[in-house]
Amino acid sequence: MTDCRGRAAVPAGATIIVMDEFRDLARSPKHRRRFERLLFLAAERGDADLVAERLGWGIDPDCRFGEARTPLIANMRGSCPSAATVRALLRHGAEPGLTDETGLSALDYARRKLIRLQGRNRRPPQKSPSLDENGQLALGVEEQTEIDELRAELGPDGGEFVRIYWNERLRAARRVFDDPREVEAIVELLEAAGNSGRAD
Q1: Does residue 123 sit in helix, strand or coil?
Q2: Are residues 151 and 185 in the same domain?
Q3: What is the DSSP letter of 156?
């Protein structure tokens, strides 16, 4: 049996089997570190959607890389700290009190970053010129023409490529670097998470 494009049709329920196999792959000792690296990089970039997706694969939210940094710490040390990323990590069991090789936790880094940001005379974060008044992607004529040409060149399979490109471009346009409001929200989240884990 084939679909409308002549490819083998996926039987009902097969998607669940494929996802189970994918999760098994993400947890296997042979491949686990590669998957953990994907989570770590998404957290470092402050990409909450990718972090949530990758945590759904069953990746350890407390995996460690370079100088024993966890994804929580990577998010705070990165240039785009994200409260949504921190929420996703905490929701999936990330331990806020873990420290890196310097003995600092994500909360320590968040407090330090907040002090630095508050000490600067900063303008409010400005939105990317690629976003319209509703926060949606509004490409210039040249970039839109380039995408249209690429779609035509790729043929029927070009739609999926363009969809992926569009989503990544939108993520990049919405990224705000070192937003003090995000860091304040993260400090509150990590303080609350640390307090809830303490015995009275």
Answers
A1: coil
A2: no
A3: G
